[in-house]
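As a representative case, the lines below give one protein's residues and fold tokens.
***
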Amino acid sequence: MISQYNTPDAHGIRNLMTVVAKRLKIEGFIILDKAKDESFNKEFYSKVPKWIANGELKIKEDVTKGLEQAADAIVGIFQGKNFGKAVVRIADE
């Protein structure tokens, strides 16, 4: 849905018969609903940072260097030019 957010020719679910034949369940979620759940937050923050640190979970960041490039980075998000989390690095650590 995000990839079609601003697309005038957005399409619905394709191959819906496959969903029925394979008895799939389709369920959407809004992350803000989970953010209010204290048990979800506790479990998330107890597991995910460790997975990232030990390499079990790999994150992808599309890093743009320099504040002067920030506008291009934002435009790139809406044009689908980035992958993963878009980051604008304004200074080295």
